[in-house]
Amino acid sequence: MAAVETIHVDGTWQAAASGAQREVLDPADAKTLAVVAEGGVEDTDAAVAAARRAFDQGPWPGTPVAERAALLRRVAELLQRDRETIALIESRDTGKTLEEGRVDVDDVTNAFRYFADLAAGESAGRVIDAGTPDVHSVVVHEPVGVCAMITPWNYPLLQASWKIAPALAAGNTFVIKPSEVTPLSTVHLVRLLAEAGLPAGVANLVTGTGDPVGARLSEHPDVDLVSFTGGLISGTKVAQAAAPTVKKVALELGGKNPNVVFADACATAEGFDTAVDQALNAAFIHSGQVCSAGARLIIEESVRERFVAELARRAEKIKLGRGTEDGVECGPLVSAQQLDKTEAYVASALEEGALLRCGGKQPEPNEVRPATGYFYLPTVLDQCHREMRVVREETFGPILTVESFQTEDEAVTLANDTEYGLAGAVWSADTARARRVAARLRHGTVWINDYHPYLPQAEWGGFGKSGVGRELGPVGLDEYRETKHVYENLRPSPVRWFAG
Fold this sequence. Notes:
Layout: E1 7-9, E2 12-14, E3 21-26, E4 31-37, H1 41-56, H2 65-81, H3 83-94, H4 98-120, E5 126-128, E6 135-143, E7 146-150, H5 156-170, E8 173-177, H6 184-195, E9 203-205, H7 210-219, E10 225-229, H8 232-242, E11 248-252, E12 258-261, H9 269-284, E13 296-300, H10 304-315, H11 336-351, E14 355-358, E15 379-382, H12 389-392, E16 399-405, H13 408-416, E17 423-427, H14 431-440, E18 445-448, E19 467-468, H15 473-478, E20 481-489
Helix pairs in contact: 1-7, 2-4, 2-5, 2-6, 3-4, 4-5, 7-8, 9-10
């Protein structure tokens, strides 16, 4: 087989040093979609060395902010030029619908434009009043250095942009390792960076597995920061590997997110319809493979039966199929492993007493859903409680659990009874109540009468075991910078502290 060159080091595309390759499967039919290089430690070390040289000796860190911002805007233009191509890549690779892929490209474009504008609009530094005209004191920001980026399989292009855009805006160099399951859109993005004129060595890419590539990046002494998005277990390994070198670490580790619905939100026909529709969106978009998925419906007991019955009725009508087909609303799970995991969670929930309202199995094969695809029906599990694994753990599948409450305090207690704290929502026609509950929720993003939207200018991240650090917003840029205080004495004189 001919060498596959998906590793990018110092401006050159190359095969893995070992010659190893990996098949990337189409989750809709389990057939080979592409073949990529399977990088290892040697490839990772070469990529880090290139990024180190580019930072220590290359022009990028010292490039004026306006020029860095201009390059990010060129990348945004190229993303829109290739919008349909990239959306198709993302749909085929992850299983999501083509329209979701288009939305992802637009969101990535917005991220590059936002960080370009944010960096270009900043002043040269914050002047500090030292209390005397004889001192000039200023706080400035400088790039961290070499950044290692490890991204997940569910939103590979989006999560890459949340790291790459601020890192480049701040003047860093980087090595990125996309998930071995969904690497293709990241390969395309790195090609666009080169086309936009990014100097060689600034952007480096190693396709491969978490062990050894991700592990080596996390421990590497020449890496100054590691940013990881993924599962809790892998995230703790990244932090442990990074600890001996005391590098900066940013972790986004998912969530188990509550969607709290009060009865007054359902008092009108329009309110009821909206709350049910949004609960479906919260739980089942991208087959539930979303870190902020509203997988826990926490609903007031007085409307529980009516709400769940309608929710299950609509969930049964969700059209499954290949994401590129017209009319498909939900694609497959990303892999056989994820399908097995979903089946195991549903089985454990039923053993622990949950009531299956819909789904709970793979659909029958048809002309849209091949027999070998990783499909699972949207599943609603009623009568759940906090002791169930399916309620405590992040399932990352099309599973919605239902819990109920009778008082506001009980709703808040249930919503906060999780070791995670990434996102959540509250639905109420009472504005004062909604804002009061939102203030009490221990989650990094809280929606009121909505679910899932985010803004690139607003920070994203979680409390508790959902991680440390933030992406997006001004703080997302600060993650990739060091802060330095420069104190200049304009009229130096002897201190005479020692008599001498």
